[in-house]
Amino acid sequence: MMRGLKVVFNKEMRRVFREPKMIFSLFILPVILMIGIYGLIGYLGQNMTQDIEDHRSIVYMENMPEEISAMMSDFAAQSEIIPIDGSSDLEAMKAQVADGSIDLIVIFPENFMETVNSYEEQGEIPDIQVFYNPSEDYSSEAWTRLNTALDGIVRPGLLAQRIGDMNMLEVFTVNASGGGTVIDEQRAAGQILSMMLPYLITILLFAGTMSLGTDTITGEKERGTMASMLVTPVRRSDIVLGKLLALTFMSMLSAAVYIIALVVAMPQAMGTGDLEFSFNASQIVMVVILMILLAFFYVALVGLVAVLAKTMKEATTYVSPLYIIVIVAGLFTMLSTSGGHETWEYLVPIYNVALALGEIFTQELTVVHFLLTTGSTLVYSALISGIIVKAFNSERFMFNA
Fold first, then answer.
1. Would the pTM of this model clear 0.90, i.e. be above it?
2. Per-residue CA distances from 195 to 302, 331, 351, 358, 394 (Å)
3. Whose CB has fewer CB within 10 Å in the chain, the N or C terminal residue?
4. CB 238 within 8 A of CB 5
Protein backbone atom coordinates (compact mmCIF):
# COMPACT_ATOMS: atom_id res chain seq x y z
CA MET A 1 0.00 0.00 0.00
CA MET A 2 2.71 2.47 1.00
CA ARG A 3 4.65 1.80 -2.20
CA GLY A 4 1.69 2.71 -4.44
CA LEU A 5 0.92 5.82 -2.39
CA LYS A 6 4.56 6.88 -2.61
CA VAL A 7 4.61 6.40 -6.38
CA VAL A 8 1.55 8.63 -6.84
CA PHE A 9 2.90 11.25 -4.41
CA ASN A 10 6.25 11.42 -6.21
CA LYS A 11 4.52 11.63 -9.58
CA GLU A 12 2.53 14.67 -8.46
CA MET A 13 5.64 16.32 -7.01
CA ARG A 14 7.55 15.84 -10.26
CA ARG A 15 4.64 17.23 -12.25
CA VAL A 16 4.77 20.49 -10.28
CA PHE A 17 8.50 20.96 -9.80
CA ARG A 18 9.39 20.13 -13.40
CA GLU A 19 7.11 22.87 -14.68
CA PRO A 20 8.78 26.34 -14.46
CA LYS A 21 5.45 28.14 -14.85
CA MET A 22 4.01 26.23 -11.90
CA ILE A 23 7.03 27.01 -9.71
CA PHE A 24 6.82 30.69 -10.63
CA SER A 25 3.08 30.97 -9.91
CA LEU A 26 3.24 29.06 -6.63
CA PHE A 27 6.46 30.30 -5.02
CA ILE A 28 7.93 33.34 -6.77
CA LEU A 29 4.92 35.39 -7.87
CA PRO A 30 3.36 35.41 -4.34
CA VAL A 31 6.52 36.95 -2.86
CA ILE A 32 6.72 39.59 -5.58
CA LEU A 33 3.04 40.47 -5.24
CA MET A 34 2.91 40.50 -1.44
CA ILE A 35 6.07 42.52 -0.86
CA GLY A 36 5.31 44.80 -3.81
CA ILE A 37 1.69 45.49 -2.81
CA TYR A 38 2.35 46.03 0.89
CA GLY A 39 5.50 48.03 0.19
CA LEU A 40 3.50 50.27 -2.15
CA ILE A 41 0.72 50.65 0.46
CA GLY A 42 3.28 51.71 3.08
CA TYR A 43 5.01 54.11 0.69
CA LEU A 44 1.77 55.76 -0.43
CA GLY A 45 0.47 55.94 3.15
CA GLN A 46 3.64 57.64 4.41
CA ASN A 47 3.62 60.06 1.48
CA MET A 48 -0.02 60.95 2.12
CA THR A 49 0.64 61.55 5.83
CA GLN A 50 3.69 63.68 5.07
CA ASP A 51 1.76 65.67 2.47
CA ILE A 52 -1.01 66.45 4.98
CA GLU A 53 1.51 67.47 7.65
CA ASP A 54 3.41 69.74 5.23
CA HIS A 55 0.30 71.43 3.86
CA ARG A 56 -0.26 75.06 4.91
CA SER A 57 -3.91 75.29 5.87
CA ILE A 58 -5.99 77.92 4.07
CA VAL A 59 -7.97 79.59 6.86
CA TYR A 60 -10.47 82.42 6.50
CA MET A 61 -10.59 84.27 9.82
CA GLU A 62 -13.06 86.93 11.00
CA ASN A 63 -12.71 89.19 14.09
CA MET A 64 -9.63 87.40 15.43
CA PRO A 65 -8.38 89.42 18.47
CA GLU A 66 -4.68 90.30 18.59
CA GLU A 67 -4.33 88.61 21.98
CA ILE A 68 -5.61 85.33 20.51
CA SER A 69 -3.39 85.70 17.45
CA ALA A 70 -0.33 85.96 19.70
CA MET A 71 -1.33 82.79 21.58
CA MET A 72 -1.85 80.86 18.31
CA SER A 73 1.52 81.59 16.73
CA ASP A 74 2.22 77.90 16.07
CA PHE A 75 -1.13 77.49 14.32
CA ALA A 76 -0.49 80.65 12.30
CA ALA A 77 2.93 79.33 11.23
CA GLN A 78 1.24 76.25 9.71
CA SER A 79 -1.57 78.21 8.08
CA GLU A 80 -2.24 80.87 5.51
CA ILE A 81 -4.70 83.08 7.39
CA ILE A 82 -6.89 85.32 5.23
CA PRO A 83 -8.83 88.02 7.15
CA ILE A 84 -12.51 88.50 6.26
CA ASP A 85 -15.27 90.73 7.61
CA GLY A 86 -19.03 90.70 7.99
CA SER A 87 -19.53 91.81 4.40
CA SER A 88 -18.03 88.59 3.02
CA ASP A 89 -20.32 86.04 1.38
CA LEU A 90 -20.33 83.28 4.02
CA GLU A 91 -22.40 80.87 1.95
CA ALA A 92 -20.01 81.13 -0.98
CA MET A 93 -17.04 80.48 1.32
CA LYS A 94 -18.80 77.47 2.87
CA ALA A 95 -19.23 76.10 -0.65
CA GLN A 96 -15.46 76.45 -1.11
CA VAL A 97 -14.91 74.51 2.13
CA ALA A 98 -17.17 71.80 0.73
CA ASP A 99 -15.15 71.53 -2.50
CA GLY A 100 -11.78 71.70 -0.71
CA SER A 101 -10.67 75.15 -1.87
CA ILE A 102 -10.73 76.47 1.70
CA ASP A 103 -9.74 74.40 4.72
CA LEU A 104 -11.34 76.36 7.56
CA ILE A 105 -13.61 79.31 8.25
CA VAL A 106 -13.21 80.66 11.78
CA ILE A 107 -15.51 83.42 13.01
CA PHE A 108 -14.90 85.06 16.38
CA PRO A 109 -17.87 87.04 17.71
CA GLU A 110 -17.52 90.82 17.83
CA ASN A 111 -16.09 92.16 21.08
CA PHE A 112 -14.83 88.66 21.92
CA MET A 113 -12.17 89.80 24.39
CA GLU A 114 -14.47 92.32 26.07
CA THR A 115 -17.08 89.60 26.61
CA VAL A 116 -14.47 87.22 28.01
CA ASN A 117 -12.91 89.81 30.32
CA SER A 118 -16.22 91.21 31.60
CA TYR A 119 -17.76 87.83 32.32
CA GLU A 120 -20.03 87.63 35.34
CA GLU A 121 -21.70 84.61 36.90
CA GLN A 122 -24.17 83.04 34.44
CA GLY A 123 -23.27 85.72 31.91
CA GLU A 124 -22.85 85.38 28.16
CA ILE A 125 -20.27 82.88 26.92
CA PRO A 126 -18.87 83.84 23.49
CA ASP A 127 -19.13 81.18 20.80
CA ILE A 128 -16.49 80.72 18.10
CA GLN A 129 -17.97 79.41 14.85
CA VAL A 130 -15.78 77.01 12.88
CA PHE A 131 -16.70 75.52 9.51
CA TYR A 132 -14.65 72.60 8.18
CA ASN A 133 -15.08 69.58 5.90
CA PRO A 134 -14.37 66.21 7.61
CA SER A 135 -14.28 64.46 4.22
CA GLU A 136 -11.24 66.51 3.17
CA ASP A 137 -7.90 65.50 4.74
CA TYR A 138 -6.49 69.03 4.64
CA SER A 139 -9.60 70.46 6.27
CA SER A 140 -9.69 67.79 8.98
CA GLU A 141 -6.02 68.38 9.78
CA ALA A 142 -6.59 72.16 9.94
CA TRP A 143 -9.50 71.62 12.36
CA THR A 144 -7.31 69.36 14.52
CA ARG A 145 -4.56 71.99 14.64
CA LEU A 146 -7.04 74.75 15.49
CA ASN A 147 -8.78 72.71 18.16
CA THR A 148 -5.42 71.83 19.72
CA ALA A 149 -4.45 75.50 19.84
CA LEU A 150 -7.79 76.66 21.25
CA ASP A 151 -8.09 73.94 23.91
CA GLY A 152 -4.42 73.57 24.78
CA ILE A 153 -3.23 77.20 24.70
CA VAL A 154 -5.95 79.82 24.27
CA ARG A 155 -8.51 78.48 26.76
CA PRO A 156 -5.96 77.92 29.61
CA GLY A 157 -4.37 81.31 28.86
CA LEU A 158 -7.66 83.21 29.09
CA LEU A 159 -8.66 81.34 32.23
CA ALA A 160 -5.32 82.24 33.82
CA GLN A 161 -5.97 85.91 33.04
CA ARG A 162 -9.42 85.70 34.59
CA ILE A 163 -8.71 83.84 37.84
CA GLY A 164 -4.95 84.26 38.27
CA ASP A 165 -3.99 80.93 39.87
CA MET A 166 -4.87 78.04 37.54
CA ASN A 167 -4.40 75.57 40.40
CA MET A 168 -7.76 76.76 41.73
CA LEU A 169 -9.33 74.79 38.85
CA GLU A 170 -7.37 71.62 39.62
CA VAL A 171 -9.27 69.32 41.98
CA PHE A 172 -6.98 66.38 41.27
CA THR A 173 -4.54 65.16 38.63
CA VAL A 174 -4.12 61.80 36.90
CA ASN A 175 -0.69 60.24 36.36
CA ALA A 176 1.14 63.48 37.17
CA SER A 177 3.53 61.70 39.53
CA GLY A 178 3.67 58.31 37.80
CA GLY A 179 1.45 55.69 36.27
CA GLY A 180 0.85 55.20 32.58
CA THR A 181 0.20 52.49 30.05
CA VAL A 182 0.87 48.89 30.99
CA ILE A 183 1.16 46.70 27.91
CA ASP A 184 2.26 43.17 27.12
CA GLU A 185 4.21 43.74 23.90
CA GLN A 186 4.00 40.10 22.89
CA ARG A 187 0.23 40.08 23.36
CA ALA A 188 -0.12 43.40 21.53
CA ALA A 189 1.86 42.03 18.58
CA GLY A 190 -0.30 38.89 18.68
CA GLN A 191 -3.41 41.06 18.58
CA ILE A 192 -2.20 42.60 15.33
CA LEU A 193 -1.49 39.16 13.86
CA SER A 194 -4.83 37.74 15.02
CA MET A 195 -6.72 40.33 13.01
CA MET A 196 -5.15 39.50 9.65
CA LEU A 197 -3.21 36.23 9.56
CA PRO A 198 -6.05 33.75 10.32
CA TYR A 199 -8.14 35.35 7.57
CA LEU A 200 -5.26 35.32 5.10
CA ILE A 201 -4.15 31.79 6.00
CA THR A 202 -7.64 30.36 5.40
CA ILE A 203 -7.91 32.13 2.04
CA LEU A 204 -4.35 31.52 0.82
CA LEU A 205 -4.46 27.83 1.65
CA PHE A 206 -7.64 27.46 -0.37
CA ALA A 207 -6.30 29.60 -3.23
CA GLY A 208 -3.25 27.36 -3.45
CA THR A 209 -5.47 24.27 -3.51
CA MET A 210 -8.04 25.40 -6.08
CA SER A 211 -6.10 25.32 -9.32
CA LEU A 212 -3.82 22.45 -8.35
CA GLY A 213 -6.68 20.29 -7.08
CA THR A 214 -8.92 20.65 -10.11
CA ASP A 215 -6.03 20.12 -12.53
CA THR A 216 -4.70 17.06 -10.67
CA ILE A 217 -8.01 15.20 -10.83
CA THR A 218 -10.45 16.80 -13.30
CA GLY A 219 -7.62 17.87 -15.60
CA GLU A 220 -6.27 14.33 -15.78
CA LYS A 221 -9.76 12.96 -16.40
CA GLU A 222 -10.20 15.44 -19.23
CA ARG A 223 -6.77 14.69 -20.75
CA GLY A 224 -7.30 10.94 -20.44
CA THR A 225 -4.26 10.32 -18.24
CA MET A 226 -6.44 9.37 -15.27
CA ALA A 227 -7.80 6.34 -17.14
CA SER A 228 -4.25 5.09 -17.71
CA MET A 229 -3.45 5.46 -14.03
CA LEU A 230 -6.60 3.62 -12.94
CA VAL A 231 -5.72 0.49 -14.92
CA THR A 232 -2.29 0.18 -13.26
CA PRO A 233 -1.75 -2.27 -10.35
CA VAL A 234 -1.82 0.62 -7.88
CA ARG A 235 -4.88 0.52 -5.65
CA ARG A 236 -7.34 3.32 -6.21
CA SER A 237 -7.34 4.23 -2.53
CA ASP A 238 -3.56 4.71 -2.83
CA ILE A 239 -4.08 6.95 -5.85
CA VAL A 240 -6.56 9.07 -3.89
CA LEU A 241 -4.37 9.38 -0.81
CA GLY A 242 -1.23 10.00 -2.86
CA LYS A 243 -2.89 12.83 -4.76
CA LEU A 244 -4.49 14.33 -1.64
CA LEU A 245 -1.23 14.26 0.33
CA ALA A 246 0.70 15.78 -2.57
CA LEU A 247 -1.88 18.52 -2.92
CA THR A 248 -1.79 19.17 0.82
CA PHE A 249 1.99 19.46 0.74
CA MET A 250 1.93 21.86 -2.22
CA SER A 251 -0.87 23.92 -0.67
CA MET A 252 1.12 24.23 2.56
CA LEU A 253 4.26 25.33 0.71
CA SER A 254 2.36 27.92 -1.31
CA ALA A 255 0.60 29.32 1.77
CA ALA A 256 3.86 29.36 3.76
CA VAL A 257 5.49 31.45 1.05
CA TYR A 258 2.57 33.90 1.12
CA ILE A 259 2.61 34.17 4.92
CA ILE A 260 6.39 34.68 5.17
CA ALA A 261 6.18 37.37 2.50
CA LEU A 262 3.27 38.97 4.39
CA VAL A 263 5.11 39.02 7.74
CA VAL A 264 8.14 40.58 6.01
CA ALA A 265 6.06 43.19 4.16
CA MET A 266 3.43 44.05 6.80
CA PRO A 267 5.66 46.29 9.00
CA GLN A 268 6.48 48.40 5.93
CA ALA A 269 2.79 48.68 5.05
CA MET A 270 1.99 49.79 8.61
CA GLY A 271 4.84 52.27 8.66
CA THR A 272 6.52 50.51 11.58
CA GLY A 273 9.71 48.90 10.40
CA ASP A 274 10.61 47.94 13.98
CA LEU A 275 7.47 45.84 14.48
CA GLU A 276 8.64 42.51 15.92
CA PHE A 277 6.84 39.20 16.30
CA SER A 278 8.10 36.17 18.19
CA PHE A 279 6.55 32.76 18.75
CA ASN A 280 7.27 30.10 21.31
CA ALA A 281 7.63 26.43 20.38
CA SER A 282 4.08 25.45 21.38
CA GLN A 283 2.57 28.23 19.25
CA ILE A 284 4.60 27.15 16.22
CA VAL A 285 3.59 23.50 16.66
CA MET A 286 -0.12 24.37 17.01
CA VAL A 287 -0.05 26.68 13.98
CA VAL A 288 1.65 24.03 11.84
CA ILE A 289 -0.81 21.32 12.94
CA LEU A 290 -3.81 23.52 12.21
CA MET A 291 -2.44 24.57 8.82
CA ILE A 292 -1.79 20.95 7.84
CA LEU A 293 -5.28 19.86 8.87
CA LEU A 294 -6.95 22.83 7.19
CA ALA A 295 -4.93 22.27 4.01
CA PHE A 296 -5.94 18.60 3.96
CA PHE A 297 -9.59 19.54 4.53
CA TYR A 298 -9.46 22.01 1.62
CA VAL A 299 -7.76 19.44 -0.58
CA ALA A 300 -10.46 16.92 0.26
CA LEU A 301 -13.21 19.45 -0.55
CA VAL A 302 -11.65 20.47 -3.85
CA GLY A 303 -10.83 16.83 -4.62
CA LEU A 304 -14.47 15.85 -4.16
CA VAL A 305 -15.60 18.61 -6.50
CA ALA A 306 -12.92 17.64 -9.01
CA VAL A 307 -14.04 13.98 -8.99
CA LEU A 308 -17.69 14.89 -9.58
CA ALA A 309 -16.93 17.41 -12.34
CA LYS A 310 -16.56 16.26 -15.94
CA THR A 311 -14.49 19.19 -17.23
CA MET A 312 -12.13 21.82 -15.83
CA LYS A 313 -14.70 24.51 -16.60
CA GLU A 314 -17.34 22.64 -14.64
CA ALA A 315 -14.93 22.08 -11.73
CA THR A 316 -14.07 25.79 -11.59
CA THR A 317 -17.77 26.62 -11.49
CA TYR A 318 -18.33 24.25 -8.57
CA VAL A 319 -15.28 25.49 -6.63
CA SER A 320 -16.25 29.18 -6.77
CA PRO A 321 -19.07 28.92 -4.16
CA LEU A 322 -16.65 27.10 -1.84
CA TYR A 323 -14.20 30.00 -2.17
CA ILE A 324 -16.94 32.45 -1.15
CA ILE A 325 -17.70 30.33 1.93
CA VAL A 326 -14.01 30.35 2.87
CA ILE A 327 -13.84 34.15 2.54
CA VAL A 328 -16.96 34.63 4.66
CA ALA A 329 -15.68 32.26 7.37
CA GLY A 330 -12.39 34.16 7.50
CA LEU A 331 -14.18 37.51 7.69
CA PHE A 332 -16.25 36.31 10.65
CA THR A 333 -13.08 35.61 12.64
CA MET A 334 -11.47 38.87 11.52
CA LEU A 335 -14.42 40.90 12.78
CA SER A 336 -15.27 38.88 15.88
CA THR A 337 -14.32 40.00 19.38
CA SER A 338 -11.62 38.10 21.23
CA GLY A 339 -12.66 35.69 23.97
CA GLY A 340 -16.12 34.48 24.94
CA HIS A 341 -16.58 32.05 22.04
CA GLU A 342 -19.01 29.18 22.45
CA THR A 343 -17.72 25.59 22.41
CA TRP A 344 -19.77 24.67 19.34
CA GLU A 345 -17.93 27.31 17.30
CA TYR A 346 -14.80 25.15 17.44
CA LEU A 347 -16.70 22.41 15.57
CA VAL A 348 -17.67 24.55 12.55
CA PRO A 349 -15.46 23.66 9.55
CA ILE A 350 -12.97 26.34 8.38
CA TYR A 351 -14.29 28.88 10.88
CA ASN A 352 -12.98 26.82 13.78
CA VAL A 353 -9.41 26.76 12.44
CA ALA A 354 -9.40 30.51 11.73
CA LEU A 355 -10.76 31.11 15.22
CA ALA A 356 -8.14 28.87 16.82
CA LEU A 357 -5.31 30.50 14.84
CA GLY A 358 -6.36 33.93 16.07
CA GLU A 359 -6.42 32.74 19.67
CA ILE A 360 -2.98 31.15 19.31
CA PHE A 361 -1.53 34.55 18.41
CA THR A 362 -3.29 36.23 21.36
CA GLN A 363 -2.39 33.29 23.66
CA GLU A 364 -6.05 32.63 24.49
CA LEU A 365 -6.54 29.18 22.94
CA THR A 366 -7.30 26.45 25.48
CA VAL A 367 -6.27 22.82 25.14
CA VAL A 368 -9.92 21.71 24.94
CA HIS A 369 -10.70 24.11 22.09
CA PHE A 370 -7.52 23.12 20.26
CA LEU A 371 -8.44 19.44 20.50
CA LEU A 372 -12.02 20.12 19.38
CA THR A 373 -10.76 22.08 16.39
CA THR A 374 -8.15 19.54 15.29
CA GLY A 375 -10.35 16.52 15.99
CA SER A 376 -13.41 17.84 14.14
CA THR A 377 -11.35 19.00 11.14
CA LEU A 378 -9.64 15.60 10.94
CA VAL A 379 -13.00 13.79 11.09
CA TYR A 380 -14.51 15.99 8.35
CA SER A 381 -11.46 15.44 6.15
CA ALA A 382 -11.57 11.68 6.67
CA LEU A 383 -15.27 11.52 5.79
CA ILE A 384 -14.79 13.51 2.58
CA SER A 385 -11.73 11.42 1.66
CA GLY A 386 -13.82 8.28 2.09
CA ILE A 387 -16.40 9.67 -0.32
CA ILE A 388 -13.64 10.43 -2.83
CA VAL A 389 -12.34 6.86 -2.59
CA LYS A 390 -15.83 5.54 -3.30
CA ALA A 391 -16.11 7.91 -6.27
CA PHE A 392 -12.72 6.67 -7.59
CA ASN A 393 -14.07 3.14 -7.45
CA SER A 394 -17.09 4.18 -9.55
CA GLU A 395 -16.59 3.87 -13.30
CA ARG A 396 -19.46 6.32 -13.83
CA PHE A 397 -17.52 9.15 -12.18
CA MET A 398 -14.04 8.30 -13.41
CA PHE A 399 -14.63 7.60 -17.11
CA ASN A 400 -17.29 10.13 -18.09
CA ALA A 401 -15.03 13.15 -18.66
1. no
2. 27, 10, 14, 7, 44
3. N
4. yes
